[in-house]
Every structure is written in C-alpha cells, then in structure tokens.
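In this section we walk through a basic example: taking a raw amino acid sequence and producing a predicted 3D structure, encoded as discrete structure tokens. The instruction is simple. Fold the sequence below.
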Amino acid sequence: MAPLAAVSSGVPLKKSAHSGVCWQLRGFFRKVWQDKYVVLFSPQYTILIAVVLWLAEVAVNVWVIQRVAYTEIDWKAYMDEVEGVVNGTFDYMELKGDTGPLVYPAGFVYIFMVLYFITGYGANVQLAQYIFAAIYLITLLLVFRIYDRTQKVPPYVFFFMCCASYRIHSIFILRLFNDPVAMAILYGAVNLFLDNHWSLGCFFFSLAVAVKMNILLFAPGLLFLLLWEFGLMKTIPKLTICAVVQLILGLPFLLSNPAGYITRAFDLGRQFLFKWTVNWRFLPEEIFLNRNFHVSLLVAHLVVLLLFAVYRWNKVLILGLVELSWNTYPSTVYSSISLHVCHLIILMHLWYTCSFSSETDAEFKTKEVQRKKKK
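The resulting token sequence is shown next.
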C-alpha cells in the first residue's frame, strides 16, 4: 500500500537502476537519430558505426560461407607444403605443393601447420573458412581501432571498406590466402605502435614478415617512425628484435639448408604471372614480364623513398646522423665530416626558414595596410 499512498500523496517514486539505464539508452539513440547525418561524417562516432558494421559482418560471413561456392587456388598447395615439414623435410628446396615450391618464410609454415591439424590435414575446408572468417573479424576490430585512435576518417567510409567489398571477402573466406593472416598480425603491430608498445610491436611486425615477405613494404615507414621516436642508437635494439624473430623462426630450416631457405623464403626475383595482375593489366604481357620493367619499378620505389628522406624526412635523417657521429668512438674522418655537414644543413634550414617567415610577415603587413587604405 505504501507505493500507492506515495503516488496518491504526490511523492515521486524513485527510478530503479535498470529504468535509469533504459532512459539513458533511449536518450542516446534519440540523439543519434536526430544527428544521423553527422553520425556518418563525424569521426567521433567511429565506434558506433564500427560496432554496427562488425555485427553485420558476422552475418555476411556466415551467409557467404554457406551460400557462395569456395574456389580452390592455394589452400591445397599450402597443405602440401606444410605436410612436407610434418613428414620431416626442412630443406626449403625440397618443399613444394601443387602450384610450385614453398616461397613463404617460416612463420607461414608454423601457422598453417596448426591449421593443417585443426582441419583434419586440410580436408575440412569449411572449418578453415570459418577460421578465416574469425581472422577477418579480428582484423576488422584492429582496423576500426586504428581509425578510432586517429579520428581522421568519416565513418561512412567503413561500409565500403568491409560490407560492400566483394574482394575482401573473397581473399579471406573464399580463397583462404595467407595474406589475411599476415595483415591481421601487421594491424596488431600497428595498434601496439599507437599504444607506444614499440618493442612488442616490432616483434609482431617481424612475425607478419615471417608469414609473407610483402609486409616488408611497410618497413621504410616503420624505420622512419623508429628513428623519429628513438633516434638512431635506440632504434638498433628494436631492429634487433625483428632480426632475432626471423632467426629463431627460420632456425630449423637455416640449419638444414641456409642458402635454400633465404633464396626461397625471401626471393626478390620471383616472376609473377600476368593473368593475376590488377595494377598492370593495361601493359602488354611482354613488358610486364620484362626484367628491365621490374628493375625500373624497384628503382622508382627507391628514388621516391630517397626523395622523401631528403625533402620530407630530412630532420630525422640529420638527427640520426648527428647522433651516430657523436656515438662513434673513437671518432673517424667520416663521423667528423658528417657532423659538420649536418650542422651546416641545420643552419641553412634555419636561415632560409626564418627568411621566408620574415618575407611572409612583411607581405602580410603590406597587404593589411593596402586593405585599410581602400576602406
């Protein structure tokens, strides 16, 4: 009777905790609906859109696995290559599958060996598809977290990145390539870098390289960040972590045939088939397969990196050289000359930067005076 009496006397009832949460949720979703256009374009709603898309992706992946036919390309070859190691072959020159020799580093072997046993020696392809779907969903979480940390990309872009991408679902759950495994580990490393766990991040970066060599394409950017964050001498231990990971993972194969492992796992001279190209389809096949074209691409890549090092990353490069010069003991002719050249470049940069700033200020003042005269 007490609640009824309270109502009749006009005394308000206390809301339960559950009722309070419901009201808060209703208020939140009402605000989201009112600001629905802002939600799609404002990075502050990254987490909300990411959660919605991630849940949608769970359903999409199940639907694709159940309804879309699996296409065999490399999975059987991966299993054959791993089976050779299971049977006791550690010479990379002897390991091969249906599509050719084993050309991936040792990390690939260990990870796909686990998949080999989980899927009944590679026979249960659908189970493998669900495992790769899980890898895809983990990768999405890692990528969404990167975007949430940076707050640079409008959330509507995420839909085209995942749900609307046929290619991404094909690579992960319809082809079972090793690229998704390598990229999932790489994105894990990027998240660690964002959280300032540099040593652990370098460990996972090297682990990603050990799955597929193309992760090395990210190495120049990582080197720049390490030099920027730690300087030259403190960067060396981080690079050592990367090297030690490669050494430990590859040790059984290096002991068997070191030259065979290095040339196969990190073969920079591999010839790719024209039928698989996306970027260079517009070229004639003979040009695509020409070694001169390959060399020109490599040279162009190195030139671009050099230009960035000189004109965009020069501060890091100069500071690294200064630190290296000071840490060279006993000093040498080259370390002494490098130190003077670096200081000269710093002085010139300061001189021209200050001159440019003074000219800019003078131009601004002149324009301001002219504007006032017009008034």
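Looking at the output, two observations stand out. Confidence is low (pLDDT under 50) at residues 1-11, 356-360. The radius of gyration is 29 Å. In the next section we compare this with other chains.
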